[in-house]
Amino acid sequence: MFDNLLPLVAAVIVPLVKIAILIGALMTAAAYLVLLERWIAAWVQDRLGPNRVGPLGLLQPLADGLKFIFKEEYTPAHVDKFLFILAPIVILTAALAIFAVIPFGSVLPPLGLEAYGVKDPIRLIVAPGVDVGLVYVFALSSVAVYGVILGAWASNSKYSFLGGLRSSAQLIAYEIPLGLGILGVVLYSGSLDLEHIISAQATSGVWNVFTQPLGFVVFMVASFAESARLPFDLPECEQELIGGYHTEYAGMKLLLFLIAEFLHMVVAAFLIVILFFGGWHLWGVTGSGDEVNWFQAIARIAVLVAKIMAAIVFFMMVRWSWPRFRFDQLMSLAWKVMLPLGLLNLAAVAVISETMQSAESPTSPWIVAGWGWAVLLVGWIGAALAAPLHDDNRPRQNTREFDVEEEIASGVKP
Amino acid sequence: MKPTDPAITWIEEPKLGIAGKMYLPLFLQGLAVTTRHLFSPKVTVSFPEARPEIGNPLIYRGVHRLNKDAEGRVKCVACFLCATACPAHCIDIVGVESPWPDREKYPESFSIDELRCIFCGMCEEACPVDAIELTSFFDLTGRSREEMIFDKEKLLSVYDQTKDSEPMKSQEFGGTL
What we know:
The complex is a heterodimer of chains A (414) and B (177).
Chain A: H1 5-44, H2 60-70, H3 81-97, E1 107-108, E2 122-123, H4 133-155, H5 158-189, H6 194-204, H7 208-211, H8 213-226, H9 238-241, H10 251-276, H11 294-321, H12 327-356, H13 365-386, H14 404-409
Helix pairs in contact in A: 1-2, 1-10, 1-11, 2-10, 3-4, 3-10, 4-5, 5-8, 5-12, 8-10, 8-12, 10-11, 12-13
Chain B: H1 18-21, H2 24-39, E1 64-66, H3 81-85, E2 91-97, E3 105-113, H4 122-126, E4 132-134, E5 149-150, H5 152-162, H6 169-172
Antiparallel strand pairs in B: 1-4, 2-3, 3-5
């Protein structure tokens, strides 16, 4: 009599198992990414890095976590208590909820659960087949910025306030290039579903980074800003703003902010890999269809994780390679360089895919890629020639000649 | 100072070429530097297990020692020059009449407060008989402030410990033993 219920139960249990795996993996990953970040920071500066807790320092995340748990949960008296507590919850919830539509692998062959109603191969994504996946991702990553602004505003502190202001201005400046970078990919693969975008790249064997490198550059720069990583970590720069929006936070609430920050970086790495580097696809190893054997299924997960780790290491290396942008430089980079380049990419992708992808005689994707690189070259050199970032505001010899005595004599108040 | 002051030299920044304006060469340069350092040998050591290399023990300024002469007597003649030179006032000497015929005074007690000491090495420079020297011992610890006031016996024992690894500097520099 329960036979009818079994598919229903399976339909509930399978996503719950996926969620448990995903959240467990993400929390562990965030903890170990902190360790990786500290290691890379140390190695780049010719230091050894954390190596005391456990073998090779591998238990350091445990020590870090314990430290946060045992710290005093101090809430300053001058804060708006409700929003102050709400902000870290909002930011972490949003950061975790993003992963609902992000595939963390391809598909698993059926696990012998046919008797229980699980007939299709299991898709490694919490919410499979969400047609507006990308829109969902960007809606939620914007909500995460609300967490930052809420926390900054509720803190009632000048440093936090400045961090929040910067974060909101940065959000407006970078959502547009980010969206333009994505639009090219969406236009080219014809779907907002991340799984479909991957399988489109896997089927043709040409990753989007080859066909639209300009879009990749725009998207990557914007995603650095979106995840508030150096060189665009203005909302939280330690040197100027003492941590920016989380200046007033301590203990577990600070931990929530920091985890969310790392999750943003993970999301950015996932999106870069999925949108531009073919997700789980690798030539000759992973295959491309939905029919997989166990080797392919595991190889796809491994390839995806390897690509994401590479992207994250790149994020961390860039942190120590480049100094932070000044705020006006960041703004002019966003509005004067990235926005036009994003528009150029979008227009080029539209024209190229309209003229070359006719149904009867499709052009080879590699020729499309050639055009993409030509567009990159033209756009990049154009931006360099226009050079909107090279406004020189240093003092000059003849900019302001004045003589105090003369000015007083002519009636100017000193 | 006015902008027209002749003491100011105004320099124009050289114009960036197309490669500089394109950012990419500079970006790759920065990334190459960090990547090189990622794999380069590290300068820090895991201290208690591995000890740092002291470049030249002769010019390293660590814990003090009181040198002994060939007959095993303390070389110090209690002239107070080191205590006078000391900017941290950490040297305390009680000089009394010497029992030996070759000098007038010797230190009955000689103590250095290693917690006050700033390890500037001025005592070493001031000493006319090369009696006080700084060794390359740097990891001195103690459980109390009193313990860190090194008396004459302690300072002489530092000499006994280090005389083989670090010969007296006076010999090295051609001074009198």
